[in-house]
Specification:
Blueprint lengths: L2 H11 L5 H11 L8 E5 L5 E5 L20 H9 L5 E2 L7 E10 L3 H14 L5 E4 L5 E13 H18 L8 E5 L14 E2 L4 H4 L6 E2 L9 H6 L6 H9 L13 E3 L3 E3 L6 H11 L5 H5 L4
GO molecular function, one term: helicase activity
Keywords: ATP-binding, Helicase, Hydrolase, Nucleotide-binding
InterPro entries: TOTE_primase (IPR054347)
């Protein structure tokens, strides 16, 4: 979308909120840590990288004595204007989080993203699709009504991925990169993985770091979209992660060919049965989930 069109949309559609109200809304939705955030810089290869918002002189101090700049309205404004690119740390000090993000990059990212979105809706939950800064990937956001343990949030995400893979066995899901948070627990003095915040000014005007519909078109009023975010209850999270894969119904008979391996025609079994068989066959192989990038 052309920059002039985006600027027109931003000015006309977002005037119902003051700058202060936008900041309050933004921080209420993207509720990570705000006592520290991630600043960006351009490395020697011209790529964007991030580092914690240490106060000046931090390199001369031991880790336990370093202090941080907090994420203020002024910092957010610079992010919205495109003067900076800000990242947030999802995990709080008690290993909890208010959201989970699935990161899809390149490959089948569009098809995989829509499949995950459809699965979530079938479970009466909403997956919020954000075009990544590159323009060739998605951040799929799930927002929780209250803080939940990162371990449970990640189990929730893993289960959604499993269901999506069952639904569309023709998709490789090679686009799946990682989850945010990317850890179950934090070690002392560690922040965990950061995620770049949406609405980064420069990318925003290129149709990136914005939320999109099923046709990958940006919603015209991004701020109103944030106001209408549907959060997921703790009960729904618990129900999903307690379901057992072993309860899938399998065909009573399967035709297989035995040689130096076991072979069967994929077309002769349902996608759910095929996914279950893959999991059962790889139960003792920890590299299976690593290959799927789920760990």
């Amino acid at each position: 979308m052309e920059r002039s069109r985006f600027e027109e949309m931003f000015q006309l559609q977002s005037s119902h909120l003051t700058t202060q109200e936008k900041s309050q809304l933004f921080t209420s939705v993207f509720a990570g840590r705000y006592d520290v955030y991630a600043k960006n810089f351009i490395n020697e290869q011209g790529k964007i990288q991030y580092f914690p918002s240490y106060d000046y002189g931090w390199k001369q101090l031991p880790p336990e004595k370093r202090s941080f700049q907090t994420l203020t309205n002024s910092v957010l404004k610079s992010h919205f204007r495109g003067e900076a690119a800000i990242g947030i740390f999802p995990m709080h000090l008690d290993d909890s989080c208010y959201f989970l993000v699935l990161d899809l990059d390149e490959g089948d990212w569009k098809e995989a993203g829509l499949t995950i979105r459809r699965i979530a809706r079938e479970l009466q939950m909403e997956a919020h699709l954000e075009i990544s800064r590159s323009g060739y990937g998605l951040h799929i956001w799930f927002f929780f009504e209250e803080a939940i343990l990162s371990r449970k949030a990640r189990l929730f995400g893993k289960k959604l991925l499993e269901l999506a893979m069952q639904e569309s066995m023709q998709l490789s899901f090679d686009s799946f990169d990682r989850m945010f948070p990317n850890q179950d627990v934090l070690s002392k003095g560690v922040f965990g993985n950061l995620i770049a915040l949406p609405f980064q000014g420069e990318a925003y005007h290129q149709g990136r770091t914005v939320f999109v519909d099923e046709h990958f078109q940006p919603y015209e009023d991004q701020w109103r979209y944030l106001q209408e975010i549907q959060r997921i209850s703790t009960a729904k999270v618990a129900l999903l992660i307690q379901e057992e894969l072993g309860k899938q119904e399998l065909d009573k008979e399967l035709k297989v060919v035995l040689s130096n391996m076991i072979q069967l025609e994929k077309s002769s079994v349902t996608s759910k049965a095929l996914f279950f068989l893959k999991n059962m066959a790889s139960f003792s192989n920890p590299e299976f989930y690593s290959g799927l990038k789920l760990e």
